[in-house]
Amino acid sequence: MGLIVALDPPEGVDGVEWCLRLIRELGSVPDGYKLGLPLALESGVEGLKRVAEAVPPGKLIIADLKLADIGYVMSLTVRRLARAGVNAVIAHTFVGVEGALDALAGTCGDLGIKLVLVALMSHPGASRVMAPAFRESLRIVKEVGAWGAVLPATRPDAIREGREFLGSSVKILSPGIGAQGAEPGSALEAGADYEIVGRLVTRAENPRAVAEELVRRYERVLGRR
Amino acid sequence: MGLIVALDPPEGVDGVEWCLRLIRELGSVPDGYKLGLPLALESGVEGLKRVAEAVPPGKLIIADLKLADIGYVMSLTVRRLARAGVNAVIAHTFVGVEGALDALAGTCGDLGIKLVLVALMSHPGASRVMAPAFRESLRIVKEVGAWGAVLPATRPDAIREGREFLGSSVKILSPGIGAQGAEPGSALEAGADYEIVGRLVTRAENPRAVAEELVRRYERVLGRR
Fold first, then answer.
1. What is the ipTM score, two decimals?
2. By residue range, what is the domain housing residue A68?
């Protein structure tokens, strides 16, 4: 409950096989899996499809290509991702609505794909353009009617602000747990719905045990909320 | 001279074959080719490689995935693109430098890949976050030492401002010719180095004749400059 595992294969391995092994191991423990651009490039739609087919039914399968283009190109991309069996996609707010996210939201709606928008990132460079535009990004999330928003676990203040602004109907997904510095459970404490965890699980000696421990912790946090 | 052809296959065709046919037809007429995310997803690195290998030597082969992630992920992506034979990549300025474009620029430098940054887009939604951050974006292009910047042909004022701010050492690449409304040659008039042209060439009855006509026009414009 509350756990999304980011499957980012290390370099020099067969990325699809690496993902399949982890999904077999983790099974239904996480609420979903997030797949990134390096994996998508490795083998295209066919590779993504093999990975998506291995995920147990009812789970989120999120393509995190951080889409940031005009609506026409993003829509073409999402149609291909839909063929791969993905059921959620991540795009950036900063491309704006008209001629960009409006078209993407329409295509996602038609295809039954959940749209998740990055409202803020946590690396230091995000302070230049993204952080000053944070409020505008939240407004765009709302306007577009996105299913979810990405807010960094390393910025619990931004998660709280996001939750207050967006209300309870928009899911908040938080990366930044573990390797990037945030304590597991801290984003959920601040109001997120899901924590996106990568290496802490995928590079563990026993990924399933770590995932189960995270889920137990998340259940305690969510029980208190 | 001055022409980059955007190879964006329509839906429902074999994208790699479609690109190969156009490259055979256009050959050395353009200065380079731009490949997008839908094509990259269709068949992954292997498909891109088949396309890249068909491009005559010395030409730009630009992967336009509009990268907009943390440095680590963008670097992993570019390493895969390098294996495909791509020699330039497009990323967004708005992710900022530290922890993002600094790492990407380093990886591009190591691999001998040209880094091109989107400083502005021209769809209406770009007015929300991108246009107000235009100056900051230009500063980021300079700071990162990017080889080139993308500025829309539909905004000749922005091209002039970009050229003035960036000086002559940074190449300016302008999409938006034809289908998106700008007159061929108008971006070069305003100071761009390349016009990126898609459908006007690729959907023409005789793509090579159209490309040759564009190049003749560009030579006249550049000769006057």
1. 0.95
2. 3-224
Percentage of the residues of chain B whose pLDDT score is greater than 90: 92
The 10s digit of each residue's pLDDT in B16-57 is: 999 999 999 999 999 999 999 999 999 899 999 999 999 999
Q: Tally the domains of chain B.
A: 1
pTM metric for this prediction: 0.97
Q: Which residue among A65, A71, A123 places its CB closest to the CB of B99?
A: A123
Give the strand pairing for A3-7 and B148-150.
unpaired
CATH of the domain at B170: 3.20.20.70
| Residue positions of B annotated with a catalytic role | 66
Residue A195 token pair: 């924590």
Q: What is the CA radius of gyration of chain A?
A: 16
Residues 6+ apart with CB under 8 A from A66: A37, A90, A91, A92, A118, B67, B68, B69
Q: Is A34 one of the annotated active-site residues of the chain? A: no
The tokens describing B190, both together, are 């305003």
d(CA A19, CA A33): 10
Give the gyration radius of chain B's Cα atoms: 16
Contact at CB, A123 and B36, closer than 8 angstroms: no
